[in-house]
Amino acid sequence: xxxxxxxxxxxxxxxxxxxxxxxxxxxxxxxxxxxxxxxxxxxxxxxxxxxxxxxxxxxxxxxxxxxxxxxxxxxxxxxxxxxxxxxxxxxxxxxxxxxxxxxxxxxxxxxxxxxx
Length: 116
Fold this sequence. Notes:
There is one protein chain. It contains no helices and eleven strands. 33% of the residues are buried. The protein is mainly β. Strands 2, 4, 5, 6, 9, 10 and 11 form a seven-stranded mixed beta sheet that branches. It has a four-stranded antiparallel beta sheet with strand order 1-3-8-7, with no helix packed on it. The termini are far apart.
């Protein structure tokens, strides 16, 4: 089970940190990721991190601004979002799985709204 939190309203240029709490004994064996879905658009990949944290991948649109990380001891995944833009407005979903990018398991979304 995945539980995302940390969304909210922020001005352009601001920052937010999303968190995802995971439960289950297999968390440490799964890659974890973040996807987002803007109004009227399809869900898109944002970032992913391998089970050990050594490999990370980002969508071109967020490279240099977003950072994904995980704490396996706490079963947590984070998405640090800086220099936010209005086009980052979306519902953000935490995901996990053994595939890449991981999209087998999903949490509920958390809404991020960036005002101009």
